[in-house]
Design a protein that fits this description.
With about 270 residues, the protein is an alpha/beta fold. It has eleven helices and eight strands. The chain has a single domain (about 1-210), classed as Uracil-DNA glycosylase-like domain (Uracil-DNA Glycosylase, subunit E, 3-Layer(aba) Sandwich), CATH 3.40.470. It has helices spanning about 20-35, 65-70, 80-90, 115-135, 140-150, 155-160, 180-185, 190-200, 200-205, 230-245, 260-265, and strands at about 1-5, 10-15, 50, 60, 100, 135-140, 165-170, 170-180. A hairpin with a 2-residue loop joins strand 7 and strand 8.
């Protein structure tokens, strides 16, 4: 397993087993659960990392947690979540078959729109989820997540029900925009549109995985024989190394917070 640096959250390549991916997903959850990188940490009750099947072929991505989610720590646990469960069942799926997350992991005060700095700060967590869960299809729920994940300002009314392949982080996935279930709670006629879009999911999940981008290739740095040092240079280098070394016992590692499948909501 090789760890490559990226912005914020490390990119891990060479992971092949479901067990490895599951454990690494828990590590990302640990990091996110104590995140203080933006001002939302000051107002949230709970970090809502996401929940569901860690090996899901289908992910749903919403905008941000609401009040119920902020209290409960799990995504889509209100009325919109119950409608989402019903729509899944109508096409032969259960919540335990999918993984549900949001663009933001913390609730914006008053359910206001996410700010660009908050999105930029939180984006790596979503990319890491996609990388480790390895879904075939990501359903973007509503206008906000659709515009963000498609990297396009076109509204949901023009693109819903139209699958497209996009690269998120290091993974190519099929993005499938659909209306947010909450839309049908306010406009009952929207339920038929949601049902028609959900009806496409079985075929999308049965289709092959989109071609994946080539991994980054790192050229090895050729070794160069060092020139012999004079005795004076050796003494100076040794003194600088000793002077810059930390005192014994100075490094203190923080104990990682305890976790469990129940807390993360993994099935």
């Amino acid at each position: 397993m090789v760890v490559q640096p990226s912005s914020g959250v490390n990119t891990i390549v060479g992971v092949t087993t479901a067990v490895e991916r599951r454990e690494l997903l828990k590590e990302v959850w640990k990091e996110a659960s104590t995140c203080t990188k933006c001002q939302l940490a000051e107002t949230r009750q709970t970090v809502v990392f996401g929940a569901g099947n860690a090996d899901a072929d289908l992910m749903f991505v919403g905008e941000a947690p609401g009040a119920n989610e902020d209290r409960g720590g799990l995504p889509f646990i209100g009325q919109a979540g119950r409608l989402l469960d019903r729509l899944l069942q109508e096409v032969g799926l259960e919540r335990a078959d999918v993984f549900i997350a949001n663009v933001l992991k913390c609730r914006p005060p008053g359910n206001r729109d996410p700010r660009p700095t908050e999105i930029a700060t939180c984006r790596d967590y979503l990319h890491k989820q996609v990388e480790l869960i390895e879904p075939k299809v990501i359903c973007t729920l509503g206008n906000f997540s659709t515009k963000l994940l498609r990297d396009d300002p076109t509204g949901i009314s023009k693109v819903h029900g139209q699958p497209e392949v996009h690269v998120l982080g290091v993974r190519a996935v099929t993005i499938f925009p659909i209306y947010h279930p909450a839309a049908a709670l306010y406009t009952p006629s929207m339920l038929d549109t949601l049902r028609a879009d959900f009806a496409q999911l079985p075929a999308l999940l049965a289709a092959p995985l989109p071609p994946q981008p080539a991994p980054d290739v790192f050229e090895p740095v050729p070794e160069v024989e060092p020139e012999p040092e004079s005795p004076a240079e050796t003494e100076t280098a040794t003194a600088e190394a000793v002077e810059g070394a930390p005192e014994a016992g100075a490094e203190v590692l923080e104990q990682a917070p305890k976790t469990s499948d129940d807390q993360l909501g993994l099935f």
